[in-house]
Amino acid sequence: MTIELHCFGESGNSYKAALPLALSGLAWTPVKVDFFSGATRSGDYRALNPMGEAPVMVDGDYVLTQSGAIQDYVSERSGMFGGRDARERREVLRWVLWDNHKLSSQAGMTRFLMNFLPEEKRPAEVIGFMQGRLKAAYAVLDRHLEGRDWIVGDGPTNADFSCCGYLFYPEPFGFDRAAWPAIDAWLARLAALPGWKHPYDLMPGHPSDRA
Questions:
Q1: Long-range contacts of 86-94 (CB under 8 A, 24+ apart)
Q2: pLDDT (tens digit, 9 = 90+) per residue, 144-163?
Q3: Taking the CA of residue 140 as centre, how many other CA atoms within 13 Å lie in the half-sphere pointing to its CB?
Q4: Cα–Cα dist 29/59, whole Å
Q5: Residue 209: is its pLDDT beyond 90?
Q6: CA 20 to 30 Å from 136, out of 96, 103, 130, 157?
Q7: CB 201 within 8 A of CB 137
Q8: Distance separating alpha carbons of residues 88 and 14, to the nearest angstrom
Q9: Contact call for residues 163 and 103 (beta carbons, < 8 A)
Q10: pLDDT at 210
Q11: What is the average pLDDT value for the chain, to the nearest integer?
């Protein structure tokens, strides 16, 4: 049975789930969530996910939300990306939790404020504060990646797919790859994986669709 992933191209959190699905070899298909038209606030969508967020994975009668949980399910189904042993699995989880608290949550909000709000409604002080927090997170990740290819172990894991969730997007939010050489090299390694796609190529939805 084909897994459905309810997602949209602009969503870094959706990308965190779509990328391991694409690389796992599991049969899956993206289902567009029209977020900017209010789809996640509709009664039908809230019946699927009472949290009103994307992504949502549907595998037969099993519905699962939150990108980290979906990543774990993909690992369970495919035997990939979850770590080779208990120690690595905990280390993967540690980085997924760190990303959700320190990196993706800040990047997602900052990118939204800077690109998807009308220009007159963009709060400069909030954006500046968030970019400061992001700079600290980039420094942590860059230092960790110095001298290693992947965040955990000797191959890509959900730690990598979680932490890269927003870093391939072209819209400005205070991330300059050239300023973080270890992160830059790591993103290049991710992009070289067989089956890798940019979020706007992997999932339906692009800012130009709303232009």
A1: 88/152, 88/153, 88/157, 91/152, 91/153, 91/159, 92/152, 92/157, 92/158, 92/159, 94/159
A2: 999 999 999 999 999 999 99
A3: 12
A4: 11
A5: no
A6: 157
A7: no
A8: 24
A9: yes
A10: 59
A11: 97
- Nearest residue to 130 (alpha-carbon basis) of 91, 184, 93, 166: 166
Is it the case that residue 26 has pLDDT exceeding 90? yes
The whole model's pTM is what? 0.96
What are the two backbone dihedrals, phi and then psi, of residue 118, each rounded to the nearest 5 degrees? -55, 145
Q: Which residue has the tokens 């890509």?
A: 156
Which tens digits make up the pLDDT trace of 45-104?
Answer: 999 999 999 999 999 999 999 999 999 999 999 999 999 999 999 999 999 999 999 999
- In sequence order, the β-bridge partners of residue 64 are 57
DSSP code for 2? P
* Encoded amino acid at 25, one letter: G
163, 101 contact by CB (below 8 A): no
Q: Two tokens at 30?
A: 């993206």
Q: What is the CA radius of gyration of the chain?
A: 17
**In the block, which residue shows the tokens 């038209």?**
37
28-32 and 62-65 strand pairing: unpaired
Give the 3-state secondary structure of residue 63: strand
- Lookup: tokens for 56: 């949502």
As given in the structure block, the two tokens for residue 185 are 């090299």
d(CA 183, CA 191): 12
Question: Which pLDDT does position 211 carry in this prediction?
Answer: 59
Contacts of 168 (CB under 8 A, 6+ apart): 15, 187, 191, 198, 199
